[in-house]
């Protein structure tokens, strides 16, 4: 694919990583952030990642730090935002982007769960607006969900799929713009049942995590659930569902157990306790373990 001009808005956890991946693949990247301090450290963070991964640090020269939004997006072929997960902030941002960007530039949101229709619905040129949902860390997790709305043109989807394929990601096309898209719907269906098992005293939080990590989690990276269903047989899957599904948590909202943790200030690692207690050393060990695993799988 020809070299494209990419604009990345938001240089936080996700944004600097997106800029890094596009630049490493040879594209020119303009990167901005509303917070001057975050923007000032973006190149250092990208360099640290490139160095740690043994990737070509010359990619850094293709990332241009730009203080203003209009100057960031003006020339871009493809604009992606990774700002705070807040509908009003994203709506306002895209209105501003649309005023400055070329009318044919493709505009993408990296929202985790907010429908793209809600974010982009007020734009004048909705046919070029879509979602590209990356996963953290963006330079290690391959998936990018490409989400179209009822207005998105097939050409915009095709360009975006091709662009992400060419930079080494694994893009998938999500055909309907539903909350959570595909990945977070699947992930949080599992989390709902995980929390419910603890809430109902069936096992403790550590046991939930051990069951997943020591059993089907081992296979998940190479065996998706529907491949697995076909492997064991749809007839067996049906029999299992007849017994198990009626017992599974079906409440439509968040668990009261989770709501109480939050109300009690048990916010997880950031407060030292959530479902479990975490010393600083345990937190560091967990983060290092995840990174080691993702790097080995790269
Ligand atoms: N963290 C994850 O694991 C993850 C994974 C996938 C998708 N996402 C999504 O990516 C987006 C960004 O998440 P993050 O974790 O990188 O957040 P973050 O808080 O690390 O970074 C957000 C950045 O956006 C900047 N910002 C806020 N408003 C802005 C504006 N109007 N213009 C320019 N910059 C602005 C902030 O200064 C901040 O640096 C969110 O929508 C989030 O849901 C996050």
Could you list some keywords that capture this structure?
alpha/beta, binds nicotinamide-adenine-dinucleotide, 13 helices, 13% strand
User: Which value, in Å, is the CA radius of gyration?
Assistant: 21 Å
Average pLDDT score = 98
Major β-sheet strand ordering:
3-2-1-4-5-6-7-8
Give the helix level as a range of percent: 40-55%
Q: Quick one: how many beta strands?
A: 8
The portion of residues forming beta strands comes to 5-15%
| Biggest sheet record | 8 strands, mixed
Strand/helix succession: EHEHEHEHEHEEHEHHHHHHH
Helix count from the secondary structure assignment: 13
Distance between the termini: 22 Å
Question: What would you call the structural class?
Answer: alpha/beta
Note down, in words, how this protein is organized.
The protein has helices at residues 15-24, 36-53, 69-73, 87-100, 116-120, 154-166, 183-199, 205-214, 216-220, 225-232, 234-244, 256-263, 280-297, and strands spanning 5-9, 28-32, 63-65, 78-81, 106-109, 129-134, 143-148, 170-174. The mean pLDDT is 98. It is globular, with a radius of gyration of 21 Å. The chain has 13 helices and eight strands. By secondary structure, the protein is of the alpha/beta class. The chain starts with a strand and ends with a helix. Helix 1 packs across helix 2 and helix 10 packs across helix 11 (234-244). Strand 2, helix 2 (36-53) and strand 3 (63-65) form a beta-alpha-beta unit. Strands 3-2-1-4-5-6-7-8 form an eight-stranded mixed β-sheet, sandwiched between helices. It binds nicotinamide-adenine-dinucleotide. Nicotinamide-adenine-dinucleotide binds next to helix 4.
């Amino acid at each position: 694919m020809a070299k494209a001009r990419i604009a990345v808005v938001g240089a936080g956890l996700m944004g600097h990583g997106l800029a890094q991946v596009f630049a490493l693949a040879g594209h020119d990247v303009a990167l901005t952030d509303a917070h001057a301090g975050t923007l000032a450290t973006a190149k250092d963070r990208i360099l640290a990642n490139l160095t740690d991964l043994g990737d070509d640090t010359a990619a850094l020269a293709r990332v241009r730090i730009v203080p203003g939004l209009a100057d960031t997006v003006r020339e871009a072929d493809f604009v992606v935002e990774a700002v705070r997960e807040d509908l009003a902030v994203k709506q306002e941002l895209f209105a501003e982007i649309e005023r400055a960007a070329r009318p044919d530039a493709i505009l993408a949101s990296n929202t985790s769960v907010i429908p793209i229709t809600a974010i982009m619905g007020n734009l004048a040129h909705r046919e070029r607006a879509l979602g590209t949902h990356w996963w953290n860390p963006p330079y290690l997790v391959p998936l990018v969900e490409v989400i179209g709305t009822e207005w998105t043109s097939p050409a915009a989807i095709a360009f975006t799929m091709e662009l992400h394929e060419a930079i080494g990601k694994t893009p998938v096309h999500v055909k309907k713009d539903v909350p959570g898209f595909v990945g977070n719907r699947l992930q949080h269906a599992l989390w709902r049942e995980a929390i419910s098992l603890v809430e109902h005293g069936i096992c403790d939080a550590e046991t939930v995590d051990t069951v997943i990590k020591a059993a089907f989690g081992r296979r998940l990276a190479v065996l998706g659930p529907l491949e697995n269903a076909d492997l064991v047989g749809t007839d067996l899957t049906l029999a299992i569902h007849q017994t198990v599904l009626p017992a599974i948590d079906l409440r439509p909202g968040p668990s009261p157990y989770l709501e109480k943790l939050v109300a009690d200030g048990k916010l997880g690692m950031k407060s030292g306790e959530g479902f479990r207690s975490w010393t600083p050393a345990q937190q560091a060990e967990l983060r290092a373990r995840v990174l080691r695993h993702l790097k080995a799988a790269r």
